[in-house]
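SEQUENCE-TO-STRUCTURE ENTRY
===========================
What this section holds: a protein sequence and its matching fold, both as plain text.
Tokens: labelled as protein backbone structure tokens, with as many entries as the chain has residues.
Question of interest: how does this chain fold, as expressed in backbone structure tokens?
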Amino acid sequence: MSSFRRDKKGEDDGGVNVFQNLDKTTLLQESRYFNSTPVNPRKCIHILTKILYLLNQGEKLTTQEATDIFFATTKLFQSKDVVLRRLMYLCIKELSGMAQDVIIVTSSLTKDMTGKEDLYRAAAIRALCSITDSTMLQAIERYMKQAIVDKNPAVSSAALVSALHLSATVPDLVRRWANEAQEAVMSDHVMVSYHALAVVASARKNDRLSTVKLVTKLARTPLRSPYALCLLIRYAAKLAEEDQSDSSEQYIEFIESCLRHKSEIVVYEAAHAIISLRKTVRDLAQAVSVLQIFCGSSKATLRLAGARTLAKLTAKHPSAVAACTVDLENLISDPNRSVATLAVTTLLATGAESSIDRLMKPMASFMSEISDETYGQ
């Protein structure tokens, strides 16, 4: 198997874009090189990179041009070079919506999808699902189910994300994969669990009772993925918002329990959900306390999240933010200008006349610094 490493000679020589003067006609001619035997991986990789660059720059190919490049690209299945093969899958995926008769590579992609080479399998799944229409999906359904519960997280995630995309066009078929996706929700791998929950929820989105059962069950289950837990918080918040009866309290209790989670993103997601749901200042106390801690964090991302959410809360419950005045005042001199600006606007919106007078000096200094930076640019 070829190494991933490539020579980088000349990569940092100057700032010239080597693809600046790419021409579609020249590229069409270069793609014929893929028919050569034996395949030169280095040269083919360079040509594929140029094709992908041109497509992502918005270059429009006619159906015939796209078909010609597509069929030339399929000749690269004979290569065993890992980098070349993965670029080939990506190119097939990009051209699938423009070229004709793309299903001709279905058998080759299915072979790679079910093969032993893990470096091919995930990319082959993504490419296969992009070219397969609803009439042919049943032929690969068994392989997709196996891939969803595969031990390799890259393969499992590729199958789950592909299933999520397919659910927009063939929801009934993807719904039959829900059992495998439900099994994958409990995966130890954070991204697999996250993607699996999205697939399961998508399959149940038109059935409220089924969604309620899913959220209720998973709320009692210790999910290991913080990303999946964030998604579950959003589903619980949506159910609580739609249901104004006492039964919605179970969702609120679950969200509040997540305020004590060890993951910062879960804690923030829970605080954000509570602020969106709760109607009284008293109910907001726990969430505001969390945001107050965020404002004093050494991490700029947490300070920004805390300041931004408090600024949002000010519009509905200015009195709830009053307890954070000291923390917000400390953020006026924050090195991150976005954080400082949010702190200033929040303090102006919530402060009394006496406190605003006290803040005029640090705010004046802050405004002058912004002016200096603006004129200095």
Remarks:
- Residues 32 and 72 are 6 Å apart (CA to CA).
- The chain has three domains: 17-133, 205-277, 283-367.
- The chain has 21 helices and no strands.
